[in-house]
Amino acid sequence: YSITGISVEERIPDSVFNRADQVELVDIEPDDLIERFYRGKIYRENENIQAHLFTKEKLTALREIALRNTASQLNRIALQISDQTKTNECNTKEHILVCLSSADSNKKVIRTAARMAAAFHGHFTALFVETQEARELTTKNKSDLRENLRLAEQMGAQIATMYGDDIPGQIAEYVKTSHVSKIVLGRSPYKKRGLAKSNVMDKLTTLLPNIEIYIIPSTVPSFYKKMNYYAKYPNLSLADTIKTIAILAVCTVIGLWFKYLEFREANIITVYILGVLLNAIVTKGRMYSAISSIMSVLVFNYFFTEPYYSLQAYDSGYPVTFLVMLAASFMTSTMTMRIREQARQSAHKAYRTEVLLETSRKLQQAKDSPGIINEMAYQLVKLLDRTVIFYSVHQGALLAPQVFSKKESACDPGVYTGGNERAVAEWVYKNNKRAGATTDTFFGAKCLYHAVRGGDQVLAVAAIVMDQEEPLEVFDNSLMLAMLGECALALEKEKLNEKQQEISMQIQQEQLRASLLRSISHDLRTPLTSISGNAGILLGNSEVLNDEQKKGLYTDIYDDSMWLINLVENLLSISRIENGTLNLNFQAELMEEVISEALLHVNRNSVKHVIQTELDDELMMARMDSRLIVQVLINMIDNAIKYTQDGSHITISARRERHRVVVEISDDGPGISSEEVKDRLFDMFYTADNIHGDGRRGLGLGLSLCKSIVNAHGGNIGVKNDVPKGAVFYFTLQA
Fold it and tell me: Is-contact 73 118, C-beta < 8 A?
């Protein structure tokens, strides 16, 4: 624009050009281009001819811009290629700082600073100093400030905010603490009015003599908001007016009392200065402080200078006294207002910091993704005092919106979650960009939508209700983005934990499957070999075998087949319990009948043992699924038969303890001495005597199945040593 005087409207974002994989320069010498222009080879007929552009000076300047940008982009592409092959060790630690304002010229300053940061491969920070006047900006100035803020974010700047009326001092303080190496400022040729408006660049040069400061000139006037009377001094308040009159009246009464006591006039002046100071504390706005200062001088002149009760003064020194009194009043009121404003800013900043720290702590304490989103939403409502809506993501789609209303909100949440608003949320989720109110995308929406992103993946969409609300302040917006980033980290961490748990479960399932296959392949070999061998003998030698030999072979085949059937039943029962497909039919059953039914199906080797039943009450009943409890008793009795010597005594007893029935299966075998074995005895695929595994076939499924069935009945199962020897297996049922 500065070269041609034409404002170009056909533009593309800088990010598009910066992300280009290839840049080609279509170039021609200025003299050749001018010659083509005069030959009529540039414009068609009836086309707007820009003849004033075709001068060698302008074309050379435009060509220089094109060459410089092309060279810069080629350098950026070369650095990206080198980063992919090796670590770039040439990056410097330059830190470029640009100051934000609502001026139109600030866009040029931001772009210049961004190009410097890219050229130096350094950090880029955009600083906004919030003064008291900045909070009284017009709507247009606030809109321009937000546009400049968004531009700085698009150019890769980190946004920072400081508070204070001393802009150079705040900038210098930030530069010292953040190790800034270069500052980029804009300057307008128009001077600011007023003696108090001294040059910012001169002050910065004095405060930062060792920092490089770059001045970007502009023909556009810099921002200076003309403060009219009502903007700088708000409308009168009845409460503050009464406070001002009351304080002035009290000071006058005290002054008359001091006059009656014949105190000096200096003491009375001190009372009025104290009143001005108190007025500045209890009222809002500088107007009341100014009124209080002027009225104090007039009242002092009226009541306490000769001639009394008149605004005239005989003593020639009184005018000087009045001026000193007025200056002291103004200074004290101004300092008080400034201190109060600083206290407000400090309290506001402390509150925001507290919210940020509390957010970090609560996100760490959240147990799952819904808990993280709930805590994040409540903290955003607390920070922004606005209604917040969250769209969670599950299996690649947005779930139903969760509305977190601010206090005393009477609005219908459905207004902010309708079809159009959800469409904006869907767009944000798919494109991983913000949209909605106060943005250039779907600006007609009622909410401002942000993607809660973890890397390139959107984990949730957060919506801030902006309908009939003021746009977010710069610092609040930065804090909100920081909190959403922290929320993304927490959600990503929780997602990784869930994946890790899934992987752990898969590993356990693979180990379980491997153990099952290994155990089945090992333990099924013996009964299958026995069945096939005995069947082969019967097929080939049935004519030479007598009836007793045939009966022995048939018995072995039957025993091995029953063992296989019991194994399959145990496996099916375990799978049904694990899958939750096992239906329990609870009924009150007689314990004597259940135990008798179990004894009919135990191992045929039970005849080699002495098995007896002991019941405290023959009519004892328990609430159970009798089919499953019979299976529990069969497994436990079979274990006692397998792991005790022939002729041992096995006792099945049942007794009532309060509201439970305790069933015990005890034996006088070798028992279980190891506590470690007792702890693992009910684990799947664990057997107590693996050394003799081939002789006493077992997959370690029986007791595991018993534990699952008893737990499904709401009971407990365990093992303990018998006295003087043997083991006691027990389980409980509801009476």
Answer: no
119-145 mean pLDDT: 79
Q: Which residues contact 731 (CB under 8 A, 6 or more apart)?
A: 632, 662, 663, 706, 710, 715, 716, 717, 718
Which of these, 659, 658, 657, 639, lies nearest to 728 by C-alpha position? 639
Distance separating alpha carbons of residues 184 and 689, to the nearest angstrom:
81
Q: Are 168 and 131 in contact (CB under 8 A)?
A: no
DSSP H or E segment with residue 360: helix 318-365
On the 0-12 / 13-18 / 19+ scale of CB atoms within 10 A, 540 is exposed
Looking at residues 196-219, what average pLDDT do you find?
A: 78
CA distance 472 to 487: 19
- Among left, alpha and beta (phi > 0; psi -120 to 50; other), residue 309 is left
- Measured in degrees and rounded to the nearest 5, phi and psi for residue 450 equal -125, 140
Strands (E), 197-304: 212-217
Q: Which of 163, 169, 225, 231 is nearest to 194 (CA)?
A: 225
E-assigned strand segments in 445-487: 447-454, 457-465
- Which of 517, 484, 458 shows the shortest CA–CA distance to 372? 484
pLDDT per residue as tens digits for the range 608-625: 899 999 998 888 999 998
Q: How far apart are the C-alpha atoms of 649 and 346, rounded to whole Å? A: 84
* pLDDT for 184 beyond 50: yes
Check residue 11 and give its pLDDT: 83
Average pLDDT over residues 141-156: 83
SS (H, E, C) 592-632: HHHHHHHHCCCCHHHHHCEEEEEECCCCCEEEECHHHHHHH
Q: Which of 692, 680, 587 is nearest to 642 (CA)?
A: 692
Q: Supply 16's token pair.
A: 């598009």
Written as one letter, the residue type at 606 is: S
Question: pTM of the predicted model, to two decimals?
Answer: 0.51
Please, are residues 164 and 170 in contact by the beta-carbon 8 Å criterion?
yes
Amino acid, res. 511? Q
Per residue in 320-355, pLDDT (tens digit) is 766 776 676 677 777 777 777 777 777 777 777 788
Contact 304, 322 (CB under 8 A): no
By mean pLDDT, which of 44-53, 388-397, 482-491, 540-549 is the weakest? 44-53
For residue 492, give the amino acid letter: E
| CB-based burial, 601-624: b 16+ in 10 Å, e otherwise | ebbeeeeebebeeebeeeebbbeb
Write the pLDDT tens digit of every residue in 223-247: 444 444 344 445 567 888 888 889 8
Q: How far apart are CA 250 and CA 234, in angstroms?
A: 25
Residue appearing with tokens 């003599």 = 209
Task: Select from 298, 138, 296 the least CA-distant residue to 224.
Answer: 138
Torsion of CA 424, 426, 432, 434, to 10 degrees: 20
